[in-house]
Amino acid sequence: MNVREEVQWFVQRMEEKMAKHDADRGDGWKEADVFSLTDRVWEELQELREKLGEYEDDDPKAVVMAIYECADVANFAMMVANHLRDDLPKDSELV
Q: Which end of the chain has the smaller Cβ count within 10 Å, N or C?
């Protein structure tokens, strides 16, 4: 599969955010239930909305902070999807 350059770039931002918390949280999210992770998606979306309210495209720091909030949203959505993946039949085309 060819992965778009934009997706590769964004995945790097996601991994940077995940790695930032490795020392204190590790993979603890794998033990969390899907509903608490879904709540976190909503919380991160609210944080993103707040950052976008403060956003000014001529402020590089604000741009970076907004991008990393997008990565937070995506990371928690990935965690939910990973939990759901565990419920797929082993012969599913998505496994």
A: N
